[in-house]
Write a structure and sequence with these properties.
The structure holds 2 protein chains of 2 kinds. Chain A is an all-beta fold. Chain A contains no helices and 11 strands. Chain A is about 0% helix and about 60% strand. In chain A, the strands form 2 sheets. In chain A, strands 2, 4, 5, 9, 10 and 11 form a 6-stranded mixed β-sheet that branches. A 5-stranded antiparallel β-sheet of chain A has the order 1-3-8-7-6, with no helix packed on it. In chain B, strand 9 (about 90-95) and strand 10 (about 105) form a beta hairpin. By secondary structure, chain B is mostly beta strands. The chains are: A mainly beta, B mainly beta.
């Protein structure tokens, strides 16, 4: 079992839909990142969080430390949101562990 | 926002040669830089963490003599793939942060290496 599990692996949505991507981890962590990777390969760091909730525009990230679970929400999704979303955790041993990513396609 | 550049964006080299990839933080001082590789349709894999002025810390399974990392200044880190082989062909990405794991990471655009 991977230490960082993301679900779903693939997600297709219609423009305007509310989207949730989940990340569960099995190790103790000091921080969790949500990253966005576009088809060309470029990566953008969306959020880094260690507790609670953060919001940036249409994106919301939450983390529940007790349940070892984080979610990334996209409200009013748009085709330009199509990308691979990656959850990564900094383990308490100083190691960085990536999920396999969720490929999101938003259709117009 | 903070900008990180990588050069070159694409490189093709012959087996046995060495290739150097540069990672620069353009508008901030990067105390820590990270190097990743990504195989097709796979997730990122952290190769090493480098702090300015000190030796890089390599992840388990990454050969330090093959992947030479230098972080000589607060704005530049280099990754040299020595004696490259076709299996080294990959997408190499760097990121930079003002501090350690608890700081925001800013990613470079990546370098596509093809070894023939």
């Amino acid at each position: 079992k991977n230490e960082v599990e993301q679900s779903p692996q693939n997600l297709t949505a219609q423009e305007g839909e509310f989207i949730t991507i989940n990340c569960s981890y099995s190790v103790g962590i000091s921080a969790l990142h949500w990253l966005q990777q576009h088809p060309g390969g470029g990566i953008v760091s969306l959020f880094m969080l260690s507790s609670g909730k953060k919001k940036h525009g249409r994106l919301i990230a939450t983390i529940n430390i007790q349940e070892k679970h984080s979610s990334l929400h996209i409200t009013a999704s748009h085709p330009r949101d199509s990308a691979v979303y990656i959850c990564a955790v900094w383990g308490s041993q100083g190691n960085l562990i990536f999920g396999k990513g969720t490929k999101l396609s938003v259709k117009p | 926002g903070a900008v990180v550049s990588q050069h070159p964006s694409r490189v093709i080299c012959k087996s046995g040669t060495s290739v150097k990839i540069e990672c620069r933080s353009l508008d901030f001082q990067a105390t820590t830089m990270f190097w990743y590789r990504q195989f097709p349709k796979k997730s990122l894999m952290l190769m090493a963490t480098s702090n300015e002025g000190s030796k890089a810390t390599y992840e388990q399974g990454v050969e330090k003599d093959k992947f030479l990392i230098n972080h000589a200044s607060l704005t530049l880190s280099t990754l040299t793939v020595t004696s490259a082989h076709p299996e080294d062909s990959s997408f190499y990405i760097c990121s930079a942060s003002r501090g350690g794991p608890m700081y925001e990471q800013y990613f470079g655009p990546g370098t596509r290496l093809t070894v023939t």
